[in-house]
Amino acid sequence: MRERIPVVTQHNSRGRRAAARGLWTGAEVVVTLGVVLLLLVVHQLWWTNRQARADARHEVRALQREWAQPEGEKAGEEGNEGQSRGQGGGDGTGGRGGSGPGTSGDRSSAGRTAPTGPRRDQAYAVIRIPRLGLAAPVAQGISKRGVLDKGYVGHYPGTAQPGRTGNFALAGHRNTHGEPFRYINRLRRGDRIDIETRDAVYTYTVDRTLGQTGARDGGVIAAVPRSNVKPYVGYTAAGSYVTLTTCTPEFTSRYRLVVWGRLTDVRAR
């Protein structure tokens, strides 16, 4: 009888090492991607808010200091101020030292037309909402880089200026970059919205809200605001209105949340 010799089969250790290296590399990539995503989230939800809020507070203080100066001193400093603040393409209008937002300019002694309103991306007013503890600059335009991402509230071009007949329409971020309109969904009928300018404080009283409408619903910022998507919501008569708009639901930009108010008081500064 022939004796059988046992055969020992050795597994390929080189292949196992290669597989282990592959798994380790894959794990490192996954961890790295996770850290990068976490840093992006922290940047968006924490750092942009921190930076924008600081910039907005600084601008509010700067406006208040500017308004405290006599008109003559303000006019003498306007040229220097314009280089560092309110930058952006000019649109043929002047700076904060004009005859007030939305008013017609007068002829100066040199025969030139005086400023008639704020420049694009220029902060020229302050919005205060006591219920929300909000105080933020209002700038001309709604560009992200020049206005909204700085923590400012943006004024829709073509809509009325504070206190004027028509609709003073505003936009602000609900999440990130200072998120000044984060909690406007908490506003209720009778709440106060103050708009401060160099010349006056305009008080609007919250009157109506629209919890959700389409992002292209231009009717909500019309001179007589009324939703095009939900035409039973809004107004039918001319007046002096304020409109606050922001994105909804939170962390999306699919729809718009709208708050409306009527002008109820004007106080000279």
> Could you say which overall geometry the principal axes of the C-alpha atoms support?
elongated
Computed CA radius of gyration, to the nearest angstrom: 28 Å
Task: Look at the structure and give the mean pLDDT.
Answer: 81
Question: What structural category characterises the helix and strand content?
Answer: alpha+beta
What's the CATH superfamily of the domain at 45-74 and 118-268, by name? Sortase
Output the strand order for the largest sheet: 1-2-3-4-7-8-6-5
Q: CATH top level of the domain at 45-74 and 118-268?
A: Mainly Beta
* Largest sheet data: 8 strands, mixed, barrel
Uncertain runs are 81-115
The share of residues in extended strands comes to 15-25%
The helix/strand series, from N terminus to C terminus, equals HHEEEEEEEE
Second rung of CATH, namely the architecture of the domain at 45-74 and 118-268? Beta Barrel
Q: How many helices in DSSP terms?
A: 2
**Termini distance?**
118 Å
CATH overall fold name of the domain at 45-74 and 118-268: Sortase, Chain: A
What is the percent of helical residues?
Answer: 25-40%
The counted number of beta strands is 8
Describe the protein's architecture and organization.
By secondary structure, the protein is an alpha+beta fold. It has a domain at 45-74 and 118-268: Sortase, Chain: A, CATH 2.40.260. The chain has two helices and eight strands. The chain has helices at residues 13-68, 71-84, and strands at residues 123-129, 134-140, 153-155, 166-171, 192-196, 200-214, 240-248, 255-268. The chain has an eight-stranded mixed β-barrel with strand order 1-2-3-4-7-8-6-5. Strand 5 (192-196) and strand 6 (200-214) form a beta hairpin. Mean pLDDT is 81; it is low at 81-115.
